[in-house]
Amino acid sequence: MNVEALQIFWPFLLFVIMLFIIGIYCISITFNLIRALLGVEILIKAVTLLIIIAGFVSGRTALAQAVVISLIVIEAVAITVAVGIVIGIHSHNNSLDTRKIVDTDK
Amino acid sequence: MNLNIAILIILIMAALWTTMTRSLLRSAIGLAAMSLVLSIIMFRLNSNLAAVFELSVCAGLIPVLFVSTISLTHPLTKQEVMQHMKDRIRRFWYLPFIIVAVGIALSLVTVKLSIKLPPHEIEKNVRTLLWNERPLYLAGQIIVLLIGAFSVVILFKESGKDER
Amino acid sequence: MLALFITVPFFSILFFNLPFLSYFRRAITAWAYVLFCAQIALALRLFSPDFLNIFTARVFFNFNIALDNLSLIILLSSAIVLFVTLVIATYMIDSERKRFNFVNLLLFTQAGLNGLCLARDMFSLYIFLEIVAITSYILIVFDKDIKALSAAFKYVILSTVASVLLVASIALILLLSGDTQFSVIHNAISAQTPNLMIMFSVALFVCATFIKAGVVPFHGWLPEVYSHSPAAVSVLFAGIISKALGIYTLMRIVNDVFGPNIHVNSALLFIGMVSIVIGALAALVQKDFKKMLGFSSISQIGYIILGIGSGSALGFAGAAFHIFNHAIFKSLLFVNSAAIESRTRTTHMHELGGLSKVMPITGLTSVFAFVSAAGLPPLAGFWSKLLIVMALILSGHPVYAILAIVLSALTLAYLLSMQRLVFFGKLNERFSKIKEAEFGFSLAAIILAAIIIVTGLLYPFVLGKFILPLASSGVFK
Fold first, then answer.
1. How many domains does chain B contain in total?
2. Strand-pair partners of C288
3. B134 is in which domain, residue-wise?
4. How far apart are the CA of C54 and the nearest CA of chain B, in angstroms?
5. For chain A, which domains are there?
């Protein structure tokens, strides 16, 4: 049971790590506010996949699905709030560039 | 097993396309495509309810949110688009190579994990689990939805009034 | 009965927002005051030395929640800070409609914080943590100032990354133990040999809570958020939100679920020390009042992490007591800065000066706050820092103890320079005609200063009734 479970788990873990790297790269390199939110979305997809595969390997698919459903609800509300903030920034500055936001220091 | 790996490779390709494409609208569509592939993976792993939820919310509601916010913030002019494209390619072109290299490197590593998996249990139903055993998850979700409704009222209503 | 802590704020929000009961909306502020005072009274009543560890309540909803002494400290501090925030908000927000929205958001925060400290299941801990975090995003941008919006965006991105790391840790724990309840996970993890996956999930979890708490090196969001958010929201943030979301979660998980571990403790000690040093050094060179207070918060959180990392029950109790003390004195400092800002319209320290001649109450209470923050006897801050230092010496880390004592001199230095620049010295002519702060600010400041004095002078009573039960009640297994 142990060996075959790990055989299923290992490729999924690999791809989850690659999705993490893509998400973090997208957040840190971009200059556009909305693309940063897309990077956050990619990270959340990665962690959803991790929950599902952890639930599958340990046999607890029902608990994993309950966790994923709650996670999807929380993610939707967090994206709504973030989009509200982005629209607020745009209505002040008329641009979505992170380099053009008013320098907050001094 | 090979079918799983093939679907996962399609997922990574969709993620790469979402990150590297130059137009924001195409990125939002790429997000919907990623959710679709993830939902197919979930169907294959016996998680039917979560897959349907993911399809309806993450492949339907969230791209609509993104598309509406992209259309509320006006697009760049033609010349800015050209300059922007050159800038982006310079920053982003080496991402696929990094990902492929990392993938190959990690797949050659074999880690000896001697973990003890939990004992096997009878398969439960998601609905009875959520309602009978874990009602606190449902209570938390209801509170979060109410906060979402509040945020729409607070954040969006005022800016509409200002623009008029 | 415990479920009332979560359901009463939630149902009162529903009640006040029903469309056909709009006549009652004016009463929401009074009802919120009643709720916060009731929570303070209940929390004080439920502390008792013979209070056994878990007091579970499974009435008709079958929630998996339980109460123990650590949760009571968070309940008490959050109720006090929410009360003070409501007092300030009643005076600083003008329009009726905005005040209604603000009180609704405060009630959501109360429901979320209560659920956070009562939860006994890892994923419901995460859900309530997200409730408080999402409400805090809305609170920061309440005034829609451009600086607040950009600080909030940076905070949203970092906080969501932290939440993702937390869920990844929960996923690995689900793989190892098959359930998310604390008791089941504890049994499953102690039955396994320490292996790579457990260490990896602990590392992910600790990184996630460090980002949420604002510990170095993840503190990038903290000074800007503290200085650009509205005054009442700064009080709420500094007092309870970064402590409860980050430090309380860390204490609960690292001790109840994973069990004390030598590697984790040494990592915590090191990061705590780095946090104190960098926070204090950065606070010395700041010119803006609120940003300096933000860096001071980073420094004080370092002390709390030193207490946790000492690995003994005494350090744990000292850390919990320091959470309470920090909530009180940091809220008092932010209340004073809000009072100064509402009268002089600036927070630049070099422009202010000699304000204690025109704002005597603000100046006097600020003296109490900074004496407590620097850890001078006989006020409350001294006792909690003494407990942490004693715990460090007793558990075999004398170097860290001596460094902690030396660095509190640095704390004294920057707070004293703040006091001298802002309150003592020559009065600027621009400000010679301003009056004392409004009644609400003075009332909140006097209440908080009174709590500091009472906790400090009546320390033997506080020790016997509140702190020793924490150390010996089996929170530390």
1. 2
2. C348
3. 124-164
4. 18
5. 2-97 (1.10.287.3510)
Give the global pTM.
Answer: 0.92
Closest to B140 (Cβ–Cβ): which among C13, C127, C192?
C127
Cβ–Cβ gap C149/A88 under 8 Å: yes
CB distance A70–C171 less than 8 Å? no
Which tokens belong to C85? Answer: 């925030």
Mutation target vs B (from A17, A51, A71, A73; most B CBs, 10 A cutoff): A73
- Nearest CB to C111: which of B111, B143, B159? B143
Mean pLDDT of C221-244: 88
Mutate to test the interface with A, among C123, C154, C164, C165 (most CBs of A within 10 A): C164
**Measured distance CA(C236)–CA(C240) in Å, rounded:** 6
| Residue C54 clears pLDDT 50, i.e. is over it | no
Please check whether residue C159 is in contact with residue C135, taking contact to mean a CB–CB distance below 8 angstroms: no
Same domain, C195 and C278: no
| Exposed/middle/buried for residue C165 (C-beta within 10 Å: 0-12, 13-18, 19+) | buried
Here the tokens at position C100 are 């209604």
Domain of C423?
Answer: 260-477
Domain end, chosen from C258, C290, C320, is at: C258
| pLDDT of C466 strictly over 80 | no
Which chains have 3+ CB pairs within 8 A of A? B, C
ipTM of the complex: 0.94
Q: Report the candidate in C385, C377, C293, C373 with the shortest Cα–Cα distance to residue C341.
A: C293
Q: With beta carbons less than 8 A apart as the criterion, state whether C268 and C216 touch.
A: no
H helices present in chain A, as ranges:
2-29, 33-58, 61-93
Q: Are A64 and B42 in contact (CB under 8 A)?
A: no
Distance CA B148, CA B63 (A): 17
Chain B residues inside the 8 Å CB shell of C9:
none
Q: What is the pLDDT of residue C396?
A: 83
Burial class (CB in 10 A: 0-12, 13-18, 19+), C434: middle
Are residues C377 and C416 located together in one domain of the fold?
Answer: yes
Whether residue C331 contacts residue C238, with contact meaning beta carbons closer than 8 Å, is answered with yes
Q: Are C74 and C117 in contact (CB under 8 A)?
A: yes
Q: Tell whether B95 and B156 lie within a shared domain.
A: no
The 10 Å Cβ neighbour count of residue C57 is 14
Nearby residues of C53 by Cβ (< 8 Å), 6 or more positions away: C68, C473, C474, C475
> Is residue B5 one of the residues assigned to a domain?
yes
CB pairs under 8 A between A and B: 195
Phi/psi at B45 (5° precision): -100, 30
Kindly determine whether residue B147 and residue C178, on different chains, have CB atoms separated by under 8 Å: no
> What is the model's pLDDT at position B23?
82
Q: Which of residues 10-49 of A touch C (CB under 8 A)?
A: 24, 27, 33, 36, 40, 43-44, 46-47
Tell me if C226 sits within 8 A of C446, measured CB to CB: no
pLDDT at C99 over 80: yes
Number of domains in chain C: 2
Picking from A34, A69, A92 by the largest number of B CB atoms within 10 A of its own CB, the best residue to mutate is A69
Q: How far is CA B18 from CA A74, B55, B62, B103, C296, in A?
A: 22, 18, 14, 19, 41
C272 and C165 within one domain: no
Residues 6+ apart with CB under 8 A from C369: C329, C332, C333, C336, C448, C449, C452
What is the tens place of the pLDDT at every residue in C266-317?
Answer: 888 999 999 999 998 888 888 888 888 899 999 999 999 988 888 788 888 8
Same domain, B6 and B43: yes
For residue C195 the two structure tokens come to 């292996």
Residues constituting chain B: 164
Query: Could you tell me if B150 and B71 lie in one domain?
Result: no
Last residue within a domain, chosen from C227, C258, C289? C258
Q: Taking the CA of residue B98 as centre, how many other CA atoms within 13 Å lie in the half-sphere pointing to its CB?
A: 14
With cut-offs at 50, 70 and 90, classify the pLDDT of residue C163: very high
